Amino acid sequence: MQKLVDGMAGWQPGDPTSPDTKLGPLASNSGVEELDELVQDAISHGADVLLGGRRPEGSGAYYPPTVLAGVTREMRAFSEELFGPVAVVHCVGSMDKAIDLANDSPFGLSSSVFTSDPDKADRVAEELETGMVWINGTSKSSPDLPFGGVKGSGFGRELAKFGFNEFANKKLVRNPQGKKGIHT
To answer: What pTM, to 2 d.p., does this model score?
Structure first.
């Protein structure tokens, strides 16, 4: 837990144009307000704040790295998505309980599994109810891989060959004297 807190503490919000900045602003002030509402709701219902937890004074859509523990079902942060630098940590007693906790969500876009045991990684990845699972890493979109979730995080996939075709305008050109086929 301390390694997580220490690591997140090193990511202080700053000027997004500075090469030294590791954490820029959120997309909007309303996003900061929504994120802070979720954090404050958890705190008011008894969550433990291990880092951050307070919206900074001043202008800009900044939110500090925050780590919450002791988040329970009564808190919005248990089941709502936190779009910002906030980690909610749950301690469980077994791999099965961790899988059950992760699947107890109305969302299922992406998940990460950290382990040095490849067999455990494969088992957990298979049992997680998400559209994407990253082993020993975090979600990174790539144009050559399908992207998408399950449950309240969408359906279907974008990107890759089939996704590319969904976003392409196709035109049939038929010319007996010239090229034939579909052009994109």
So the answer is: 0.80
